[in-house]
Amino acid sequence: AQSVTQLGSHVSVSEGALVLLRCNYSSSVPPYLFWYVQYPNQGLQLLLKYTTGATLVKGINGFEAEFKKSETSFHLTKPSAHMSDAAEYFCAVNTGFQKLVFGTGTRLLVSP
Amino acid sequence: DGGITQSPKYLFRKEGQNVTLSCEQNLNHDAMYWYRQDPGQGLRLIYYSQIVNDFQKGDIAEGYSVSREKKESFPLTVTSAQKNPTAFYLCASSNQGALATEAFFGQGTRLTVV
C-alpha cells in the first residue's frame, strides 16, 4: 500500500532561516506526491505537486520540493522563513484510486 | 468563484444524536471525499464518491453514513454509533480520471459532543 511518513511533528525555525520539512513515501508504482498547508481552523490548500518530469517542483509562497527516487523522499523547503509561514503542512500521495493518503502533518513554528 | 462550501463551521451534538454535515461544490468535480482530522493523526478517509449515486467506505467509515444524490452535494451524517465524534471534518473534491489531480478542500466543520 502506498503511504507517506513525515518526520517531526513540530519544526521550529527563526524568521529568515531555511525551512526543511521531511516527507518519505512508500509506493510500488511511480507516485504522485503533494504538499498541502493548513492554517488554524481552515481547510487545506495545495502548495505544490509532483507528477512526472522535472524532479524539482516549485509551488506557491516560495516553497519548493525535490523528488528523489533513490531516497524515496519529497522534502519541502523554503530558503527564508516568514512569520506568515507558521502553519501545519501535510505531505500526501495519490494511491491511484482517486484517493489521497496523508501523512500525520508537521507543524511549523516561526519565531521572530 | 468556484469552490467547496461546508456548513456549519461549528456544530455541537448531544450524546445519542445524529447530525448531518453539509458539503456543496460548484467545481463540476465528479469525485468527493470526507476526511476526519484529529490532532497528531493527520487526515483519515471516511467515505468517498466517484460518481452520483455511488460511494465507498474509506478507512474509518463505522458510525458514519453518506449520500450522493446530486453531483454538487455530498452530506455526511455522524450517527449515534460513532463513539468518539469530536473532531474536525473536511470535505474535498477532485476531477475524476486523472491520477495527478489534486483535491480541493472546504473550510471544515468542527464537531463537538456536549
Please summarize what this structure is:
The complex is a heterodimer of chains A (112) and B (114). Chain A is mainly β.
Tell me the span between the first and last alpha carbons of chain A: 41 Å
Structural class of chain A: mainly beta
Mean pLDDT across all amino acids of chain B: 92
Q: What's the oligomerization state? A: heterodimer
Strands of chain A, count:
11
Number of helices of chain A: 0
User: What would you report as the Rg of chain B, rounded to the nearest angstrom?
Assistant: 13 Å
Write the layout of secondary structure elements.
The complex is a heterodimer of chains A (112) and B (114).
Chain A: E1 3-7, E2 10-14, E3 19-26, E4 32-38, E5 44-50, E6 56-58, E7 64-68, E8 73-78, E9 87-94, E10 100-102, E11 106-111
Parallel strand pairs in A: 2-11
Antiparallel strand pairs in A: 1-3, 3-8, 4-5, 4-9, 6-7, 7-8, 9-10, 9-11
Chain B: E1 4-7, E2 10-13, E3 19-25, E4 31-38, E5 42-51, E6 54-57, E7 64-66, E8 76-78, E9 87-94, E10 104-105, E11 109-113
